[in-house]
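Q: Hi! First time doing this. I have a protein sequence and I read that you can turn it into a structure. Is that right? Here it is:
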Amino acid sequence: MYNGRTTTLLLVLLGLTLSACSSNSPAPPKSGPQAVRDRLAAADDVPYSAALRAVTQSGPRRLQLVEGRVNLNAPFTGRTTDRTDQYTENVVITRQKVYRRPSGTHKAWQEFPAPTAKGGIPVDRLPQYIRLMLGHSASVHQESEPLRISARLTPKDVESVDTTVGRNLRPATAIDVDAWIDREGRIVRIRQKIHFESAPDIKATITLTEFKSAMQVSAPVGR
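A: Yes, that's right. Below is the predicted 3D structure, encoded as structure tokens:
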């Protein structure tokens, strides 16, 4: 027969057992935004290069295709080929200047200031861009891997990360952005749907793959 003291002791032991079980239980999963922040914080900050493919389209029509290799986690440099319906050009991006000339020719390279290499996505500031999205009520789709983050931004929002890119987007009324970040904290894809008040939407997608060591990029010879 249990007396009061025995019952109290059993309750205490039960409480201790439950507490012990609780202490060994797995930690609750982190919220979506925190999981993204953790990946960004753990990412290696060593410069590296990546194969880049960027597509800009309006409806089913492709406006521009850019393919090549660029350096990230460092001053944005690289070599690409840009294609539109009107032209195909080879492009060399250095720290100070961008050099362009028609593919398959020996014409003189045209020189432009480096900021002209920027379009509507701040490719050289992708971690900051992801943090901007998180600060604007981003949704994190944790069922996907890489993790997908979605947010709606304005050109003024983007200017806080990259002034030139934000200005390039100024004709837009809003930008719906999806971004994918892998387990190593690298942003592997950005997709933007750019809305205008009186013009069709434009969709721009950048995909980064084949991550390797940073490469040397210099001005073209014989320019």
